[in-house]
UniProtKB/TrEMBL annotation:
Its EC number is 3.1.21.2. Belongs to the AP endonuclease 2 family. This is Probable endonuclease 4. The lineage of its organism: Bacteria, Pseudomonadati, Myxococcota, Polyangia, Polyangiales. Residues 295-305 have a biased composition (Pro residues). InterPro entries: AP_endonuc_2, AP_endonuc_F2_Zn_BS, Xyl_isomerase-like_sf, Xyl_isomerase-like_TIM-brl. It comes from Sorangium atrum.
């Protein structure tokens, strides 16, 4: 896999690229605006040029992701919020296209009293509207799976497939971002070989593995199926190292950019370099303990389709 981190844009969007270099990232994710505000900033020609120049000079030269605003709800039961969400997602796409960012990751939304079917219809309609307006833009929208908290949709692979299908012809332009913590909290047990293969089998059958554009690599503070979005450092949470060992050694995912999403360890130390190093150390290693607190057992075979040795891969 191609590992990286979500980096701060304090001091300018281009600063995130410098931080990615310091952390030895081969992929980077940013916010292009304040994630908890509706205000849409207009980027100056200078800001765009600085970001593009920083990326061109970046030794990692990897994939770039932007996470859309957390306020976006493409199936809102309030008409004003729904319209505002559609506009915000389009504006995010336009900013990212100007910056040369590859993927725009977003949470689909929560229908609340409308229910699942109406919610899926609204998300499909919203995506069709946004993508029709975005004709010609190169940045690609990626639906992120969710933990399923409250009435949030997207915790099941079949729901994501329904969103894409209901977007009509525009659905062919959609990608998917898989967040490991969200999947685990939603009830997908990636710790066991059977659970891991079940998840990716469903993904391949309902979406097609080629639809996977990027991943978020996060351990979980929440237990399996608790439906809470609570990230933890790799190997320190309820998931343990086993799922990340499977991912790091899965040849099917060798070219997928995967970023960690964690707060810095302190004001002086981000800790992302250490997290990424921990992930890279899993490549080609023996399988770690499968379950947190379990006694070590003999290593099992690598995930299906994996090489016996998985060398570090550079982004291309």
């Amino acid at each position: 896999m191609i590992f990286g981190a979500h980096e701060s844009v304090a001091g300018g969007l281009h600063r995130a690229i410098a931080l990615a270099g310091e952390d030895r990232c081969e992929a980077v994710q940013i916010f292009t605006k304040v994630s908890g505000q509706w205000r849409e900033p207009a980027l100056s020609a200078e800001q765009i040029a600085a970001f593009r120049a920083a990326r061109a000079a970046w030794a990692g030269a990897g994939r770039t992701l932007a996470h859309a605003s957390y306020l976006i709800n493409l199936c809102a039961d309030d008409a004003a919020i729904l319209e505002r969400s559609r506009e915000a997602l389009f504006q995010e796409l336009a900013r990212c296209d100007a910056l040369g960012i590859d993927f725009v990751v977003f949470h689909p939304g929560a229908p609340r009293s409308l229910g699942e079917e109406v919610g899926l219809d609204r998300i499909g309609e919203s995506l069709s509207i946004v993508l029709s307006r975005a004709e010609g833009l190169r940045a690609q929208l990626c639906i992120e799976n969710t933990a399923g908290q409250g009435s949030t949709l997207g915790d099941r692979v079949d729901q994501i497939a329904a969103m894409i299908d209901r977007a009509g012809p525009e659905g062919s332009r959609l990608g998917v971002c898989v967040d490991t913590q969200h999947a685990f909290a939603a009830g997908h047990d990636l710790r066991s070989e059977a659970g891991y293969e079940r998840f990716w089998s469903d993904f391949g059958r309902l979406l097609g593995l080629e639809r996977l554009r990027c991943m978020h690599m996060n351990d979980s503070k929440a237990g399996l199926g608790q439906r809470l979005d609570r990230h933890e450092r790799i190997g320190d949470g309820e998931m343990g190292l086993a799922p990340f060992w499977r991912l790091a050694n899965d040849a099917r995912l060798a070219r997928v950019p995967a970023v960690i999403e964690l707060p810095p360890l302190s004001k002086e130390r981000r800790g992302y370099m250490e997290e990424i190093a921990r992930l890279r150390a899993l490549e080609g290693a023996a399988e770690p303990v499968t379950l947190p607190g379990a006694a070590p057992g003999p290593p099992s075979r690598p995930p299906r389709g994996s090489p016996s040795r998985s060398p570090r891969r550079r982004a291309g």
